[in-house]
Each structure stands twice: as C-alpha cells, then as structure tokens.
C-alpha cells in the first residue's frame, strides 16, 4: 500500500488541563512510538489514525513547564468521518451510521440532484 504524504500546513495543537494523557477525540488511534524530549522530563507519545489509509498522526506530551497540561498535536487531515457518528443523508432522506465512510464528498452531484 502506498503511503500518502501529509500536507505540512495542516498541523494543529491543543493545550488542555487534564489528569489523563489521552483525551477522547472520537477517532481511534494506534500507538507507534515514544521518546524522551530535551524540553520536558516527560515522554512524548506518537499515534497513527487507525482507519485504513488515513494519513493523520497525533503527538501527545505533558507540558514541560506545567505538568497539569497535556499538549496534543495533530498533523494532517482525516480522509474519513469519525467512526460511530450518525449523519442525515438528504439524498435518501434517511439517517445512517458511518464506519469510516469517506469524509470528502462530491457535492456537485448532491446539488444537481436537489435542483433537478
């Protein structure tokens, strides 16, 4: 399987006051590494999104200056919807539950269908 390159401009970080290191963001993650960081006495943990073919990575670490905070950095954009979310489908006028459906949708077909 060919790996997709992540656009370097799609990185975002959150600093959250929390007693737990891993915060639930609705996605499933697979840990692939950890390492010591010079700027912090705590380890930095690395995760990949578990969805097949999704290029997003997540980095989680405790703030080096204030241990009460967790810094979570996301790199990339998910190419699927969050698992377990129910979406309304205006074309079929029904509700459906997703499990890794593509999040990038061709809206031109939907607009043409609604107009015609």
TrEMBL record:
Q: Which GO terms describe its molecular function?
A: DNA-binding transcription factor activity; sequence-specific DNA binding
Query: What's in the keyword line of the UniProt record?
Result: DNA-binding, Nucleus, Transcription, Transcription regulation
Looking up SMART domains in the UniProt record yields:
WRKY
Give the matching InterPro entries: WRKY_dom (IPR003657), WRKY_dom_sf (IPR036576), WRKY_plant (IPR044810)
Q: Which Pfam families match?
A: WRKY
Q: Which PROSITE patterns does the annotation name?
A: WRKY (PS50811)
Q: Which residues form the WRKY domain?
A: 18-83
GO CC terms on record?
nucleus
Subcellular location per the Swiss-Prot or TrEMBL entry: Nucleus
Instruction: Please report the name of this protein according to its UniProt entry.
Output: WRKY transcription factor 51
Taxonomic lineage: Eukaryota, Viridiplantae, Streptophyta, Embryophyta, Tracheophyta
């Amino acid at each position: 399987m060919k790996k997709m390159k992540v656009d370097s401009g799609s990185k975002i970080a959150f600093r959250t006051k929390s007693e737990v290191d891993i915060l639930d963001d609705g996605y499933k993650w697979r840990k692939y590494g950890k390492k010591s960081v010079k700027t912090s006495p705590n380890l930095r943990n690395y995760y990949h999104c578990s969805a097949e073919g999704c290029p997003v990575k997540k980095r989680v670490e405790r703030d080096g200056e204030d241990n009460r905070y967790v810094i979570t950095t996301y790199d990339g954009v998910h190419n699927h919807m969050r698992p377990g979310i129910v979406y309304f489908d205006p074309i079929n006028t029904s509700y459906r539950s997703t499990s890794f459906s593509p999040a990038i949708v061709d809206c031109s077909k939907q607009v043409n269908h609604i107009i015609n």
